[in-house]
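Ticket #340: bound-state structure for zinc ion.
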Amino acid sequence: MRGVVLHAPGDVRVENRPDPTIEKPTDAIVRLAATCVCGSDLWPYRGIEAVDGASPMGHEYVGVVEEVGSEVRDIQPGQFVVGSFFASDNSCEICRAGYQSRCVHAELMGTIGTQAQYARIPLADGTLVATPEAPSQDLLPSLLAASDVLGTGWFAAVAAEAGPGKTVAVVGDGAVSLLGVLAACQLGAERIVIFSRHADRQQLAKEFGATDVIVERGDEGVARLKELTSGLGAHSTIEAVGTQESMMQAIRATRPGGHVGYVGVSHDVQLPGDELFFSAVHLHGGPAPVRRFLPDLIARITSGAINPGKVFDLTLPLDEAAEGYRAMDDRRAIKTLLRP
Ligand SMILES: [Zn+2]
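RESOLUTION: The complex was predicted; output attached.
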């Protein structure tokens, strides 16, 4: 099969890789209908995260089940499925509490690499959610978004306790942030303020429900937000970048007693204890337990209530993945969908 391999920073190649096979009786093999490039794939692409030899890439996926192992009970060949970037058993105590991304048997899909024609999905019964019927082509981008960016933005909004009567601030304007806006809107937030300096992303944020845009970032951005909120700051803040600046911006944008939902993969973030102490904010986040939200998100997508697939503004054949990475790295694209 064809699959994306990162050899070194900036060096993305689409190569012939061995077809995946059932390795454990709980595995399934999925023929991918669509896959994509994640903002987090840009960390190793840019050399900010070490590249440890030739690495298969990708952790977002939707497709049709081809084969299942002997212990798979619920998932069946022929079903169209959506899964998350962590495989999980969905039955341990951590999963049952809603934290499937930290399942005691969790396996990161990024090490398997779903930017490919086929993928082996561990713990298929726990990981995969089947759609009620085979979706039409126009639903594929939105279902694919549910696999990570929508699920992650949704978790961020839930962790930030976005809801009726709340002012929600969103730090970052990548796909997760934009879908955090959509989630906050669906959860009934009264006012949604996004920090963004890119006109195309501001536009999409408004389509998803943002009411205000602040172009300044850092402490300047926080000052602008406070002007909009009677000097108090947001009730709920979504952090979807993962840098020192973005995390401190999120904490400082949040009023005492408010909630920060942080889902940007942390890169060397150091929290000053004294400031954290006196901020009196709740911090909750981490790798999003997307599996918790998948049944609800799939229902909202198939009913037409939400269209998160709009974050894909570039679609390429899998063989042109390198251009998909370049376009996102240059910020010419918000998110690239790859057709296997
Ligand atoms: Zn578990």
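RESOLUTION NOTES: The pocket of zinc ion is lined by residues 88-89, 91-92, 94-95, 103-105 (CB under 6 Å).
TICKET STATUS: resolved
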